[in-house]
Structures are given as structure tokens and as C-alpha cells.
Amino acid sequence: MSQAKFVIEHLEPELGKWSMIEYKHISKFLGKDRLWVTNVKNLSGQEELKEYATVITEPTVDLKLKNVCVLDPEGTEVLTPEDAKSIDYYLFGGILGGYPPRKRTEKELTKFLPKDYVVRHLGPMQMPTDSAVYTVNEIHNGKKFEDIPFFDKPEHKINQYEIVQIPMRYVNVNGKPLISAELLDHWSKSDDSDQRFGLY
Ligand code: SAM
Prior knowledge:
The protein has a six-stranded parallel β-sheet with strand order 3-2-1-5-4-6. The chain has a three-stranded antiparallel β-sheet with strand order 7-10-11, covered by helices on one side. Strands 8-9 form a two-stranded antiparallel sheet. The chain starts with a strand and ends with a helix. It has seven helices and eleven strands. Strand 2 (35-38), helix 2 (46-49) and strand 3 form a beta-alpha-beta unit. The protein has helices at residues 17-30, 46-49, 81-84, 104-108, 129-140, 181-189, 193-196; strands at 5-10, 35-38, 54-55, 68-71, 89-94, 118-120, 150-152, 155-157, 163-165, 169-173, 176-177. The site of S-adenosylmethionine has 22 residues, from strand 5, helix 4 and helix 5.
């Protein structure tokens, strides 16, 4: 089994707190060596990100990579372990999950990629980037998509008065949605609920 790299093309105008927390979380379960973050140019926070990932200024297309699979919810086929045998790089959009989804991966990433990149989806619901990366790593290691357990639109208790339903799919790891402790802490401290859940 090859050690594929996981490339996230950062597509938000800033390297905000939420994106940074997700990238750090991915680095924790995947390992720093397998995580590249591209398209990071003159962004506040990029020095900190270098502690967790290989940070690259150029957009991914300029790296002229071969055997690339882009994960796009608008893809027509689901990623399979069979596909994974010939993939060296998995490419994700570094995009926060707005609701309803606006097909930003297709409009801001896939559309500009070479035709020899494979395009695959991970089911009909959008996941945050860290759950998407975790799912792809499971498939790369031989698991079928349909055998991976998920939580759809889990509820999150903010405090004794407030429970919100998060409009995304999360991978189920040991009976819990894969959400980093740091993100839960960030949510509990943020006072704008729309921004807190990316619903803008
Ligand atoms: N709302 C965004 C859109 O409209 O494309 C989705 C962004 S999602 C939060 C971040 C990244 O995770 C996507 O760019 C994609 O690479 C990956 N992703 C999340 N859910 C996916 C799915 N169901 N199928 C394929 N890729 C997915």
C-alpha cells in the first residue's frame, strides 16, 4: 500500500481559526508528512500551519502531480478501494461547509484541473474536510465506502439552553462524530451561531 499524500487546496480568503483547527486535526490523525496545504500565499497564520503540514504557495495544478484524485461532492462515482490502488495524491477543497452547499469544490477547484485527474465523491452529503480526509484514508486502506459508519446532521449541545443540529455528515469513530476537541471549544466560545457553524 503506497503512502498517498493528502493535498488540501486552501480556497478561503483567510486562514481562519476554523480552517486552522481542521488542518491541525487532520495532521494529528494522518501525520504531518502526508498532509500538504497548497495555495497559501501571504496569509496570516501560515507560519503556524508549517508546524502541522507542508505548506505550499502555489495552487495544486502548478505542481504538475500525477495520479491525482479530486474529492468533489459533484463527482459522478464514489471512491472505491480499487480506485485507490492507482492514486498517489488525494486533493480536497479547503472550503468551509456553507449550508446549503454551493458546489464550491466544482466551481473553484475541479473546473480548473487537468482532465486526467480522477474525480470521485463520498456520498450525497457534504462532510467537513477532516471527516472527508479520514474517510478517504479508510478507503485508501481498503475499506468500502458503504462499510464506513457516519453520523448525519448530529446535534451539538452548546449550553443548557441551546442545542444545534449541524447540517453535515461526520465519520463515526468509536461511536462519536469525528470533531476535534479544539473545535468544540471554539464553538462553545464563539457567540455568533451562524459563523460558528459555517452557515453563511
Ligand atoms: N460546500 C462545499 C461545496 O459546495 O463544495 C463543500 C466543502 S467540504 C466542507 C470540504 C471538502 O471536503 C470538499 O471540497 C471536498 O474535497 C471534501 N468533501 C466533503 N464532502 C464530500 C463529499 N460528499 N464528496 C466528495 N468530497 C467531499
